[in-house]
Amino acid sequence: MLKSDSKNQKVRFIHASDIHLGTGQYQSPIRSDDFLNVLKGILDLAITKKVKFILLGGDVFSSLDLLPEQLTRIVRNLKDFKEKTHNSIKIITIEGNHDIRKYSRGARILRRQSWLRFLQELDLLILLDINPDAPTENLFQTYDYKTKRGGKIRIGNVTIYGSSYLGRKAEEMLPKIRTGISQSDGTFNILLQHFGIKGQMKNVPGIPFYKVRPLQDRINYLALGHYHLQYKIGGWIFNPGSGEAVSSVESNYKRGIFLVEINKESDKGNKFSFDVRNITLKNREHLWYTIYFPQIFQTENEIISFINEKLIKKFSNDIENRILTPSQNPILYLVLRGIKPLFSGNLDLKLLQDSILKKFPVVSIRIYEKYVEKIKTLETYIPNNNILNI
């Protein structure tokens, strides 16, 4: 159980990442709302849990392309949060690779821009960054609220260091980052970064753990973003995963946020302990369903009727009892297997999708065709002149 604060010795914070605001998955407005609701859920939880600050590990936005209505809602939620908390809960973030993409609508962006910088100008969050070329001793400048620049900020007995996405430079920058972090402040040190640890996700590039390990003598908590799969390493490296699944592949990933409580063990010295709790966010359900074609279908109508019959059995209780609201309807991933249809042309997937969306409680549907090309019989393997006619 998380305990109440006592004599300012306890500090509680939320660590989240990869919210990907503005994602227009499957061209569904409802699905776009899911990503906006993740942010709202994090802000509400911060108030409920009485945290001191929120850390966002980059890729807060999916890209620079954002609809005005979505930006309006984001700004409104952040302003409401600031007013409700009397600006007592700071939102501290860094830019991820999606936040600072170099292209928008096909046009190359020559000067770094991001929606996080826009929100910072509105005093709705704190964006940490560094000049990689600065001398080591000046790498992490204290955040200045007037100029809105700096790479570190102190909140109580916690110091947060951070930089924007460093790309390929991240690995070579680690020794400089380590040296630039102070050991003499007597605070609990957090480093906020946007990169992955190699091996935590199969076939995804990352930084080898042995290159990261030297940071451990300078920081207590390495707060990562970038990989959408949640993981922890060695009791000091933490990656919460994405706020929502941004693709069908990620639908089964473990993800969420971390609620962390830091305890200073004594009034003297700089010994700290901390507890990390996993919190699963209320994401939309991703439902995978496979339908086998046991026979050869001659027309699209036959296929659609067959699939509808199967889905009626699957959703019958939900439809009859109306236990699902639009905000609870799942995303359906429909896999079609079995004998490939024989009619001329390909199956009109748009026609099938529209039919399913009209009849069943799903917010969106993706269809994957995985047919057997044709039935193989004994004659397939035996040449005609070897068949004995009796």
Notes on the protein architecture:
Helix 1 packs parallel to helix 2. The protein has helices at residues 29-48, 68-84, 115-121, 169-180, 209-212, 300-321, 349-359, 378-381, and strands spanning 10-16, 53-56, 90-93, 103-104, 107-108, 126-127, 152-155, 158-162, 188-194, 221-225, 231-233, 237-239, 257-264, 272-279, 286-293, 331-339, 364-372. Strand 2 (53-56), helix 2 (68-84) and strand 3 (90-93) form a beta-alpha-beta unit. It is an alpha/beta fold. Helix content is 25%, strand content 23%. It folds into 2 domains: 10-279, Metallo-dependent phosphatases (Purple Acid Phosphatase, chain A, domain 2, 4-Layer Sandwich); 286-372. Strands 6-3-2-1-13-14 form a 6-stranded mixed sheet, with helices on one face. The protein has a 6-stranded mixed sheet with strand order 7-8-9-10-12-11, with no helix packed on it. The model is unreliable at 1-6 and 377-390 (pLDDT under 50). It is elongated and about 75 Å long.
